[in-house]
Amino acid sequence: MTNWAKAQVGVCVLVAFGVLVYGSIVEWDWYFIAIAMAAVLTYAGLTAYESMAVDPKNIALVATLGAVSSIGRVVVQGIPDAEPATFLVLMSGFSFGPVVGAVVGALTALGSNLVLGEGIWTPWQMVAWGLVGFSAGLLRRMWPSIRIRWLIPFAVVCGYAFGWFMNIQYLLGESSVTWKAYLAACVASFFPFDTTNAVVTAGLVAIAGYPVYQIFERFRKRMVVTRLDSSDGYSETGNEREDIANTERNEF
Predict the structure, then answer these.
(1) In angstroms, rounded to a whole number, what is the distance separating the alpha carbons of residues 157 and 78?
(2) What is the pLDDT of residues 2-14, one digit of tens each?
(3) Residues 24, 43: one domain?
(4) Could you tell me which residues are beta bridge partners of residue 237?
(5) Are 22 and 32 in contact, with CB atoms under 8 Å apart?
(6) What's the rounded Cα separation, in Å, for the pair 111 and 26?
């Protein structure tokens, strides 16, 4: 991605976050906030798409992961604050990159709330889960050799951070927003709400993290694009071999 494209995407993300915060303060309808954010982030996504030449396989993959994560959240609604969706979003970002993780997180909130009920919380959940997926992808970018077991403490942090981020949305509906009120909200949600999410997410990473990672890695390797030099009598083709020097990964 070019520097100009990165700048556009960065500005779009800031504008979307500004719309989210300002819209919540002035009490815009949730669907107006969601539409405004979707328009800005769609432009950012199209800019990234054009710059990175995303393969249609990636689009299908993101849609599938978002659907599975949404269904997983709906199925366990009988267990208060157990969010397996956080685990799937985290693993998606870790395996496929920060942008994939962010998009899967946003689709998880939007898709699951079609069944559970949309509201002002929907765009906030989109951002919260999007940040979980993005941060997981960023973690692997910065630490490529990280072991799955080190994702367990990271999952705990994500579980608590998700709840703490959502507390901002609750406070913005009040007459006054102060650090004291925010800290009180975080203390109130610490147990059992945030703790349940953190423990479930960490437990799923410990039990199913490695098997899910292996499955995702197989799919990632199938999306590797290999370009062979035409001077050798070969044409551009898709290939799963990773031992070719000029292999390019469509990781967005």
Answers:
(1) 24
(2) 777 778 878 888 8
(3) yes
(4) 226
(5) no
(6) 26
